[in-house]
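Re-running the complex after MR caught last week's input typo. The corrected sequence lines follow. Everything else is unchanged.
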Amino acid sequence: MQNILSLFEYQFFQNALMAAILTSALAALVGTYIVSRKVVFISGGITHASFGGIGIAYFFGLNPFLGAVAFAIASSLGIEWISTHGKIREDSAIAILWSLGMALGIIFVFLTPGYTPNLMSFLFGSILSVGMADIIVLAVVLLFTSLFFVIFSRPIVYTAFDPEFARTRGLPVTLIRNSMAILVAIAIVLSIRVMGIILVLSIFTIPQNTALLFSGKFSGIIKGSVLFGISGSILGLITASIFDIPGSAAIIFVLTLQFLISKGVAIILRKRKKTRKSSATGEEKNSIHEPHIKE
Amino acid sequence: MSQPLVSIKKVTAGYNGTPVLKDVNLDIFPKDFLGVIGPNGGGKTTLSKVLLGILKPFSGEVTFPGERPNIGYLPQISHIDHSFPVTVKDVILSGMATPRTWWKSLAKEHKAKADNLIRKTGLSGLANKPVGELSGGQFQRALLARAIINDPQLLVLDEPDTFVDRSFEGELYSLLEQLNKTMAIFLISHDIGTISSMVKTIACVNGSLHYHPSNVLSAEVLKVYNCPIDLIAHGPVPHRVLKNHG
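Corrected-run output:
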């Protein structure tokens, strides 16, 4: 216990904790949109496409995360456009984008002369190396995203649920959906810092699916995801430090455990409700049928 | 005669450059009850989308001779994600959105209106349930409530008889009859038997549109209109499809 408490004294651990909390909150908001709209696969495509941006930025000596943001936004808007106008098979287009992004990334990283960046940190995240600048950027984006979700909560739900109807009511559907596509792209790229390209989708989907077990409402899923996401990432980070394993992987493990336990709890609750209901109707039946039996 | 609510003139429309509707003309007047029939792929839904302004025609125009009417819309239920995490009440309230107020929070009277419609459509007790817990018929009722909550002058219904549960079918039709006192209705149906008893006029859509200014159809008329659909008369509502033989 003493060891765990002493962890919190280290600056790097405080930073990691802060980053994990902010990232989980951001992913809770954006992930609820992704899961509700059933565009998890699209988000996977955007995530991997952004690696192309990282590679190209490295090659030209630019900030790799700006490169990733540019690639992610372009591919996010591109897929949004394809899904409304497309003559291409959407799932195939995503797979092409997914692998092309990774291919471009690896080509340009290898072409970059001299120092080659640590690929592992991009693929699996490097939460323990998060600096103050990263935290400030995360906090600003989280604040902006939260405001957007609060102010436009109804239009976001309306355009995600039934865009065609929303259009008949005069909502600027394309503007709202494109704004959301940009927010999704930015949130994903910022989370890559903590979780890595390969593992990042977990925090956008697992807490949301845990929350879905207890709520069927968009706002309820956001609240649940904030709760499960933040608690899961803190626990994951502590676990990672105790066993000296990568933080991102430990977070996913804890989030999945949360989901499985919650699923069990949900099943028990449902069964209990059912037996209560059936015993209630059973009693009713008995009272009706009893006279017949006596006869 | 009053001026039409919507006037569709020489409209050709479709998807990806391929026209589905060709050179279609149609006027819809206040308190019309227009039944739209035709084979699958004939362009019924395309026509409704042009009317609603969510599909831009390749050529021709859709005009509103008076003030632009408020149009309610009940889409085909199969086109909507039934498992989306949204409550019945929120779905119904989404019908209150307008071009100028879509970002504003909702007024109390809107919520009261939604509660009233929830009762009217037989969804009492389900207001705060997610739509995923509703049956197909209940989901459709919620979507109908969403279509009429803003008191439209024109109500567009795309095959409302596909999923509606039998217990509500009769109520649905009497509700439509009641609504028709204050609004025009554009009803797409594949079930000619059901609609002919209620509609005042019929449009056959099969690429082109043939307007039939009565609710009685004969096989010969359908042949002339090139509208290959079956004249099957069934359903609990009294109706007349084929002409009475003397």
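None of the earlier attempt is carried over here. The longest strand of chain B covers residues 18-28. Confidence is low (pLDDT under 50) at residues 232-246 of chain B.
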